[in-house]
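Case study 2.
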Amino acid sequence: MNTKQIDFCIELAHTRNFSRAADNLFVSQPTLTYQIKLLEDEVGFEIFERSGKGAALTPAGSQFVTYLANMREEMKRAIEQGQNFSAKYKDNITISMPVRQAVYFLPEAIRLFTKEQPEIQITPKFQYENGVESFLKNESDILFALKEQTKQIPGINVYDLFESHIYLISQREDELASKNLLTEKDLYGRTLMVGGGSPPALQAVQHRLMASGKINYFNSADHDTTLTNVAAGRGICLAPGFLNDHSSQFAWTPFDCKESFSCQLITHKNDSRESLKEFISVLKQLYKDAVAFPL
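Prediction:
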């Protein structure tokens, strides 16, 4: 199976018509028909049912094409990344984080680092889940993680980046947004969005508030769902400061509690590249200099 056959198969699955698919692919219909037949012979089952009306996916073909489409997209990204890398760069450093805003100063760090090391590419990788597993498979060079996550990871170097605190997210016109610091009593009678993969420190605060019996709560699947509910006026939520995108869409007000999040960067202990250490040093310095920046 080659990339041409994969593209032919995906296009035919989309059009369900040999003639139309051939036109879209700029090949003759006999060429398309022959390549699809070769592919079916190779995989050992019919992908399409032919009829006078066109081509319909068989049940096995439907599942197969779904996998092919995902594989083709991954292959496309790999080729594009390789083209970018080979054209300009001698080395690559991949940094994995759950969301873009988790390492707020990353764009500035890339800019400063590239000035000194233009031949090294910095590649951000966003993994809301399974970031640790991906790091352990050597799919990233740097991982943004919380301290409680890094304690059990073997063979790593750990770099403290910043301490992140807990904030209340509300609509900007909410009366809570006018305060400089919120306490538990300020939330009495309100609906609090909880759950959604909250880290342990945040769960502890949520459970303490729910145990008061004076706060309503609503389970939310994930952070994006929570923000949608806050925007819709369905409630408020607590979140780590490192999730703040500083877009001004919501009010982020400090919440008075002892819990916080120790945010760290980790690298593989056997990765001794000086460029890697230099890039982390640039990031750490940016956070050190940002004295008044809300975290």
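The two ends are 50 Å apart (CA to CA).
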